[in-house]
Amino acid sequence: MDYRLLGRSGLKVSTLAVGTMTFGNIGAISGPEAAGARRQIDMCWDKGVNIIDTANIYAQGKSEEIIGEVLSADASRDKWLLATKVRFTMGEGPNGKGLSRHHIIAQCEQSLRRLRTDRIDLYQVHEWDGQTPLEETMEALDTLVKQGKVRYVGCSNYSGWHIMKALRIAGEDRREPFVSQQIHYSLYSREAEYELLPISADQGLGVLVWSPLAGGLLSGKYTRDGAGEGRHATGWKEPPLYDRERLFDIVDAIVAVAGEHGVSGAQVALAWLIQRPTITSVIIGGRTDAQFADNLAAADLRLTRDQIARLDAASKLDLIYPYWHQNMTARDRLGPADMVLHDGHEM
Predict the structure, then answer these.
(1) Residue 59 lies in a domain
(2) In the chain, what's the furthest Cα-to-Cα distance?
(3) Contact call for residues 188 and 247 (beta carbons, < 8 A)
(4) 250 is in which domain, residue-wise?
(5) Annotated catalytic residue: which of 58, 123, 158, 185?
(6) For residues 168 and 181, what is the distance between their CA atoms, to the nearest angstrom?
(7) Has residue 272 been placed in a domain?
(8) pLDDT tens digits, one per residue of 167-221
(9) Residue 158 covered by a domain
(10) What's 15's domain CATH number?
(11) 242 given a catalytic annotation
(12) What's the structural domain count of the chain?
């Protein structure tokens, strides 16, 4: 297992992270209770994983409760980094969601109780709130850091201008800035390359990836001939499936590379992410121990340049404006952050 600095912080995190959305029950996803969660967490620790990612909304707090029970039972809290999130509805009334000072601080305190801990290592705002002033959100997060309840703060599912505005506000007011962003990114969903990954390279943000297998679409369960047995067969919509043919062109490339290594398609899709520029950690999960074990093996898989090039060719997106114009007319003046997107695009 490799370890990478989380953005410009001194905190080192493993290149794979424990995903816990399946701990408890959320929509069509059901998973282990404490005994099964403990087994899967131990599997990850034995492989060298050192960070657990969850959110207050996962199973309406049940995921955090299970993690708290597991880590308190064997006094293993101090060896793990705990990351959780705030933003979505956790209570009744108009103030039961969002990124107001009221909601952030109240939910942090509730997460601490459910996790049975005195601090959260990485506290992430889970989604944009366009009705709360960013000054209020950043001030609330800064307060939690100063109180010792939170050690680092990050964002998730923000657009490029959201991130840059938040970083500016934090800098001007000398408040704690985001150290990382958690994004949806995979061989099928590469939109983050337009803005979010270049911003990470330019601003020194760590990147944690959620749903690296595109909700199971890249796991090998889905084929051109059938719906498969994963979440999308039950109506799951993340990510939206806009281009079925493109998806299965990518799956074909994944299966071909997997055959060359004698591994699963899931391991190839995860290994591609681990080897991408700016990526800090890839969040893995699974409803079964076998799924966790298979995903964990991706940490040892090294793809060749030729294999990466084939996967890129099957999956890369067209350049949209203004990037195609930059590529045509300013390629000789593009910087390292620009090349996170433009590398591999020749016009």
Answers:
(1) yes
(2) 60
(3) yes
(4) 3-316
(5) 58
(6) 15
(7) yes
(8) 999 999 999 999 999 999 999 999 999 999 999 999 999 999 999 999 899 987 7
(9) yes
(10) 3.20.20.100
(11) no
(12) 1
